[in-house]
Amino acid sequence: KAYYLAVDHGVDVSLNQAIQWITLNPAWALGVDDRTGSLEPGKMADVVIWSAHPFSVYAEADMVFVDGVLEHDSRRQDEPWSDFEVGQWPERQ
C-alpha cells in the first residue's frame, strides 16, 4: 500500500527501487549485503513465488524456497495448513 500511495502522491520510484527498500537496503544497513539481500550467484537467499504482484494484499505464497529447498508448495494437497489469523488448524478428512 505504501508504494502505491507514494506513486499516487508523485514520488518517482520504480518497482525495482521499492523491492530494494525491503530486500537489499535492509541488508546493506545491517552490513550483510555482500551475502544476502539480492538474488545473485554465491549469495544466501530464501525465495517466495507469489500468486499475484508481491505488493498486492491479495497475493498468497504459492511456493517458498529456503536455502534452495522447496519448503511450501500450495499445489500440494497433503501439506498441512493453518489459519494464521486465528491460529486454528482445520480438521483433516
> Strand count, sense and closure of the main sheet?
3 strands, antiparallel
Count of domains: 2
H/I helix tally? 3
Strand content: 15-25%
In terms of quaternary structure, the protein is: single chain
Radius of gyration: 17 Å
What's the shape?
A: flat
Q: Which spans have pLDDT < 50 for at least 5 consecutive residues? A: none
The N- to C-terminal Cα distance equals: 38 Å
Q: Mean pLDDT, nearest integer?
A: 85
Structural class estimated from helices and strands: alpha+beta
Total strand count, please? 3
| Order of helical and strand elements | HHHEEE
Helix content: 10-25%
Q: How is this structure best described in words?
A:
By secondary structure, the protein is an alpha+beta fold. 23% of the residues lie in helices and 16% in strands. It folds into 2 domains: 1-41, no CATH class; 46-93, no CATH class. It has 3 helices and 3 strands. Strands 1-2-3 form a 3-stranded antiparallel beta sheet, with no helix packed on it. Strand 2 (61-66) and strand 3 (69-73) form a beta hairpin. It is flat. The mean pLDDT is 85.
Layout of SSEs?
Blueprint lengths: L1 H7 L6 H8 L1 H6 L17 E4 L10 E6 L2 E5 L20
Antiparallel strand pairs: 1-2, 2-3
Short description:
This protein is α+β, with helices and mostly antiparallel strands and 93 residues long. It has helices at 2-8, 15-22, 24-29; strands at 47-50, 61-66, 69-73.
Key traits:
single chain; 93 residues; alpha+beta; 2 domains; 3-stranded antiparallel beta sheet; 3 helices
